[in-house]
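Our preliminary data section would be incomplete without showing what the modeling component actually yields. Below, a chain of 154 amino acids is followed by its predicted structure, encoded as C-alpha cells that our downstream tools consume directly.
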Amino acid sequence: AIKAVASIGGSEALEPLMDALSDPDWVNRLTAAQGLGNLGTPSAVPMLCGCLRDPEWSVRLHVAAALGRIGDREAVIPLIKALGDEKLAVRKGIIMALAAIGDPRATPSLLRFRNDGDSEIAEAVSEALAALHRATEATAKRNAKPRSKARSLR
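Predicted structure:
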C-alpha cells in the first residue's frame, strides 16, 4: 500500500507517507522516505531528520537521499550530527545529501571526515567540498552588487 501511495505522489500522499515513517516494517519506512524525497516537500524534513536514527541502516540511507533531494537547509545540522553513522553507505549518503543541499555550514564537518580512513568516504567528501565551493561561489556572485563605472575608473 505504501508503494502505491508513494508512486501516486501529490499532496494527498504526504500524510500517509509521513505516517509510514513510523511503520514497524522497515521496508515501508524506506519506501515512505523515498516517496517523501520524490515529493520534495520541505514540511517532511523534520520528520525525515528524526529517521536519521532509524535502527535499519538502509532506511537511514534512503532518508539521507530524500533530504538531499528536498534540499532544505533545515536538514543540514541533523545530517551533520548523523555523519558518525556506523555504516559506510549511510555516511556516504549523508555526505552526498549535504553536497546536494549546498549549505557551507557543512564544510568544517566534512573536512573532519576527509581522512576517515576509507577511500570511498574520502572521495565523497572531496566531491562534496567541491560542490559546496561551487554553491558558495554562485551565491556570492548572485549577491555581489555591480560596481558603478565611475568607481572602476578611479
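The chain has a mean pLDDT of 89. The radius of gyration is 18 Å. Preliminary results of this kind motivate Aim 1 of the renewal.
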